[in-house]
Amino acid sequence: MTQIAIIGPGAVGSTIAKDLQEKYNNVHLLGRSNKQLNYHSYETPDQTSTLQVTAINDFSKVVDILIIAVKIPQLQNVLSQINHLIGSHTTIILAQNGYGQLGHIKHPNVYQAVVYISGQKQENHITHFQDHTLIMDNNSRTQQLFEIAQNTKLSIELTDQIEEKIWYKLLVNSGINTITALTQQPVKVMEKPNMKQLCNQLLNEGISIAKAEGIVLEPSTVSDIMDIYESYPPEMGTSMYYDMLAQRPTEIDGIQGFLYQCARKHQLHTPILDTVYTLLLAQQPEE
Ligand code: NAP
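Above: the input entities. Below: the structure tokens describing the complete assembly.
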């Protein structure tokens, strides 16, 4: 029987585990320590399920599929602890926002998943808001997870255009995460004077970086993303906003930092990105 482990008992990892555990009992949710989590959907707060988390170090099986769903600043620490879970046959899926982290995982079968699962972790409580989708490259290994996820809530979408999908999500995150984190205000800050214009300019710089990297996005990408922001509830925060408020390290290395490095590589003129990246970097907590 295929053994599956998910590392990261947060909003994304818990949702993946819960969706698969409803059909399979060989799906293990791993974290820093042994504990139980409460999990519920936003629409049904009185219907709480319990999820069991096993400490990575207490779990001794080599798994067939390992899904890593931690935030970017947490990845290196996780990678230093997983050798005992991985064999040459293991498929590793990185379910994370941003770009550029895949190269840190020294294994032949590593794939990025573009995450469309929305939720929030507060201590030992997970609230799932919406979506259950991971988008991945279409190949024989990811097809295995696609098959496993059939008839579960988890939706695996396989694509021949994974680079475009990753970049699209990267740009979605780059705009709203930046604005909410820097202003330390939720999405309604977009209603403030000139904020949409600033966000639009930032997204357009992102488009020029994607183009320089050979990524072809639809001409309507910027307006599509601005429409997505319009659809967000005004009181919604972003993960970078919450991380900034809590003075935790944010995911800027894989989002604004990645874009900034690409822009330098191609010697592009990106004044808005350069400014916001510098301001965000200055607000990272000291290590
Ligand atoms: P999260 O709720 O903060 O969960 C991360 C989990 O990883 C936490 O439970 C944390 O454990 C665990 N972790 C950290 N270091 C660990 C370690 N060394 N060993 C084991 N477990 C460790 O994060 P998330 O929201 O699920 O985000 C995961 C990724 O998905 C991020 O890249 C995020 O940007 C992306 N994403 C999130 C959403 C969303 O709505 N949440 C949407 C799309 C994409 P502790 O509980 O002990 O701290």
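Note for the figure: Residues 162-183 form the longest helix (22 residues).
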